[in-house]
Amino acid sequence: MTPMIVALDVSKHFGPLKALDGVSLEVARGEVVCIIGPSGSGKSTFLRCLNQLERIDGGAIWVNGELIGYRREGDRLHPLSDREIARQRLASGMVFQRFNLFGHMTVLQNIIEGPVTVLRRPRAEAIADAMALLEQVGLSDKRDSYPAELSGGQQQRIAIARALAMKPELLLFDEPTSALDPELVGDVLAVMRDLAKGGMTMIVVTHELGFAREVANRVVFMDNGRVVEQGPPGTLLSTPTHARTREFIAAVL
Ligand code: ADP
Ligand code: MG
């Protein structure tokens, strides 16, 4: 079966800085991959490249078999138009550390905005879907609340529902619980655990090693813009091969 993600030798510079230095990674459909690593190691940049919030400057990425960002003509590659990139970006939903909900819209409006304006779905259908998603994240009673009236954990669960409303093929999470008070982390992780059980393909950048151990099929350790090592969580988190991985895990635990 075609992998959901194939990243091949991806590099990304910011001026002289090499944020990604030859990252290769495959993610199968339905797989949950956690990416761990120190601050500045390129984790966010990698997710942003997968979602085309950044353009890569070396290597290639395929999402569900489709080369992203470029169109091949003979042996030449041509950059895609903004419109084509916008279409490709719909394949992946992204959940950020800061929830980025629209503050002037209710919870329900936040969730149906994309489906109605981007996907042109009939409003009644979008609302019915949104209510099912609110049920799924345990916040049916908050449909008419504004983001400022919700806790950080509730806002993040709404952000997840909003991403799911676009029916993405995979979800990318960038430290989704890092901005939350500790007592609010569990509810967000529970929603993510349910999504994983439901077969959603997920790449999760996180420092929650307990979550990685329990939910991930694979854990990837990044440092200095590279994948240093990867493996099943039991192996990578308990008996890492590289000294850098050992140091990092010891520091996070
Ligand atoms: P992580 O998410 O692992 O903490 P990032 O991907 O955010 O790491 O950053 C990797 C490196 O790229 C860091 O050195 C960071 O400062 C740099 N970087 C990230 N985004 C930008 C940007 N837009 N402009 C310049 N440098 C950036
Ligand atoms: Mg980051």
UniProtKB/TrEMBL annotation:
What residues does the ABC transporter domain cover?
A: 5-249
**SUPFAM superfamilies annotated for this entry?**
P-loop containing nucleoside triphosphate hydrolases
Q: Which Pfam families does the protein's record reference?
A: ABC_tran
Q: What is the scientific name of the source organism?
A: Alsobacter metallidurans
Top-rank taxon of the source lineage equals Bacteria
Q: Give the SMART domains listed for this entry.
A: AAA
Task: Tell me if rRNA-binding is a UniProt keyword of this record.
Answer: no
Tell me, what is one Gene Ontology molecular-function annotation carried by this entry? ABC-type amino acid transporter activity
**Span of the secretion signal?**
none
Protein name, UniProt field: Arginine ABC transporter ATP-binding protein
Similarity field = Belongs to the ABC transporter superfamily.
Q: Which UniProt keywords apply?
A: ATP-binding, Nucleotide-binding, Transport
**Coiled coil (residue ranges):** none
